Amino acid sequence: MGQAGCKGLYQSLFDYKTEKYVIAKNKKVGLLYRLLQVSILTYLVVWVFLVKKCYQDTDTSLQSSIITKVKGVTFTNTSELGERLWDVADYVIPPQGENVFFVITNLVVTPNQRQETCAESESIPDALCYEDSDCPPGEPVVAGNGVRTGRCLWAGSEQKGTCEIFAWCPVETKSRPAKPLLGKAEDFTVYIKNFIRFPKFNFSKTNVLDTTDRAFLKSCKFGPKDPYCPIFRLGSVVSWTGSSFQEIAVQGGVIGIQIEWDCDLDRAPSECYPRYYFNRLDNRFSENSLSSGYNFRFAKYYRDAAGVELRTLFKAYGIRFDVMVNGKGSFFCDLVLIYFIKKSHFYRDKKYEEVRDLEVLARMAESSQQSGPGPAGLAEQPEVQDGVGAQENGCVCRQLLQPASITR
What we know:
The chain is α+β, with helices and mostly antiparallel strands.
C-alpha cells in the first residue's frame, strides 16, 4: 500500500487539470445570477462612484488663514464712566483681528484704585475673621485681592469681620449689571476673510466673492439672500445658534463659527465655496450654571497730579467668537492621465518609472560625476535618501536609493 500510494502521488505531479463548465438551462437560476450581477454593478456605479466618488484623489491637509475685522459704534452714559462713545478700539480684544476675538457687552467698573490697605471683600470666604490672629500678616487671601496685614476689621456691630489687606483699594464689590451695557452691539458687524489652500493640488481660494464692484463689501450682509458675503451681523450670528443676543450679552458666552470647504476640484473654481455653521460652545442649558458665560478682568493705569499711580479696573463680560476652518478637496486628474487620454501609456510609464538594472544606475552616476557641472553652471544636487520624495514642478517623485559603491 505504501509503494502504491507513493507511485500515485508521483504520477499526479504530472497531471494537468482544467475547469469544466455546466450550463444550466434554468430561468430561475439564470435570473438570480443576473440579478446578483446587476446588484454588484449598481453598488459600484451608484455608491462607490456617484455617492462616495472613490475614483477621486482627496486632500484633507487644508491650509487656512483667518482675518477678522469688527465695525460699529455705540454711546453709553453711566455713573462710573460718564458719557462715553464706544468704537472698535474700546470693545474688541485683541485688536489685530485673529481667528478668535472678543466683543465686550457688559462691564463692572471699579475706578480710582490705588495700592494701600483696606478691608477685603465680604464675599470671599478665606477673608472672614473673628480676631487678629485669624489674619496672619504676609499671607495672601485665597481667591482674594491682596495680602493680609494682621488686622481683623469689623463693620459696625457685626460679630464676624474681614481681614485687612494690602491691595489695589477699594476692592471690587459691585455685582454684574442685569442689563448689558453694550446691548446695541448686536448691530455690529464682523468681516471674516478666509484664505485656504489644498497643497496637494496647488489650489487656493478665498471666501470673498471675486468681483470688481468695490461697493459690494460696503453694502452686503451675509444671509439667505446673499450667501457669498463675508460680513456678518453679530446679532444674527447669535440668533442662528438658537440663543438671544440680549440674554447672552449679560454674562457672556462663546460662539463657534465653522467654515467648511468641501470642494470638487473637477469642477470650475467658482463652484468651490464655503458653507457656514454656527454653534454656541459654552453651557447654555442651565441659566445659573457656573460653567456658562465668559468674563475676564483688565485695567487701565494713570497717575494723579501728585504722581501716585492709580488704575481703573474693568471686569468685562462679552461674547467670544471662535472661527474654525476645515475641508477637503478631491481631484480626478491622475485617473484621467493614466487611463483615459490618448497618450495615457506615456503618462503611466512616467508616473511608475523604475530602474531594474543597478549596473545601469551605476553607469549613470559615474557619468554624472565625470561630466561635472553642466555648461549652464548648474549646482550639484544633494543626494536623495531612501523613501524621500524629490519635488519637481509641483510633483513629488519617488527615487531609488543609490548603491553604497556609487554614493558621492
